């Protein structure tokens, strides 16, 4: 039985053909754009590869670039280089380093010195300066940071950093386990043997020679004394306390000062005539040829007496009142080490006695005055070069 309806095909839908055409066109256009971008990138990479190949041959795939290996080492190097300069600490950091300033190492008119420790375990000494109405402490602070802050030498104490704000002025130094030299020189125990004292003298002279003759700017300390020579755990000396130090022009062969600087008893002779009696007793023993007897009286063993006599002669040369007569520190090091023959020193203070004390009042100017003598000057006044063979020959001739 037939119903009269045909199910063989769906009825036609009118109006869809234009929409389908537009959609297909958009898809084709997007595909063309993406393909063009992809081709452009490949062409750019090819050009870059050609340029690199023209400049340098390609590296093997299994080779690591040099800068990848050296990067950590170089960064460490740059960090250590930056740490060579004094660091500015905060008051809170210093309080933490010193455990609220619980251990005092020493004190004086300048302030107090406290024991401390960095977070990495390195021990330090923190000098907290007293502040007052005058500017002397401020000047001392600037002198220390401005001089020792730019030096690095095995025989100069290292300045790690400082703190300066409206409440505090402090300096952070390396810690010296055996304190200052004066504690050992003037104690009743006399625990340091002469050989070690002689090494300390040479080390101290090397530190001062570096300040005078090797720094980019000459540094004159003006307060060298046993209290300002510190000793590390091996009793190696380091010059400290640069509060009176002065930066000088390297072109000046002499430096003049009309004012008073330093500690009585340890000044250059022209600063204070009261220094005279200190050296006169010494000189009289030398003039009478009794330095050896003096070393015996001081308890110096026979094996060390020749070095002690040489050291005494160097001291007499360094105490000459005429600035030009004093040896530069490089010559002092040579004479102390024993590689040269020390010439007989003249009588100290002859210069001031002959010209009068008015010489102390002359105006300050470069090229005249006192305090430092250039190492370029002749050394024939103080010593003459010799060798073991020459010395043996001279002794043999003298005994004939």
What labels would you give this structure?
single chain, 400 residues, alpha+beta, Phosphorylase Kinase, domain 1, two-stranded antiparallel ribbon, 12 helices, 12 strands, 40% helix, disordered C terminus, transmembrane helix, serine/threonine-protein kinase, signal
Structure, explained:
This protein has 400 residues and is an alpha+beta fold. Among the domains are: 87-174, 2-Layer Sandwich (Phosphorylase Kinase, domain 1), CATH 3.30.200; 269-400, no CATH class. 40% of the residues lie in helices and 13% in strands. The strands form 4 sheets. The protein has a 6-stranded mixed sheet with strand order 1-5-6-4-3-2, with helices on both faces. The chain has a two-stranded antiparallel ribbon with strand order 7-10. Helix 6 (194-214) runs antiparallel to helix 10 (329-337) and helix 8 (291-297) crosses helix 9. It is elongated, with a radius of gyration of 39 Å. The model is unreliable at 359-378 and 392-400 (pLDDT under 50). It is a single-pass membrane protein.
Tally the helices: what do you get? 12
Strand order of the largest sheet: 1-5-6-4-3-2
Poorly predicted regions: 359-378, 392-400
What is the structural class?
alpha+beta
Largest sheet data: 6 strands, mixed
Rg from Cα: 39 Å
Which outline best applies?
elongated
Arithmetic mean of pLDDT? 75
Query: What's the N-to-C terminus distance?
Result: 163 Å
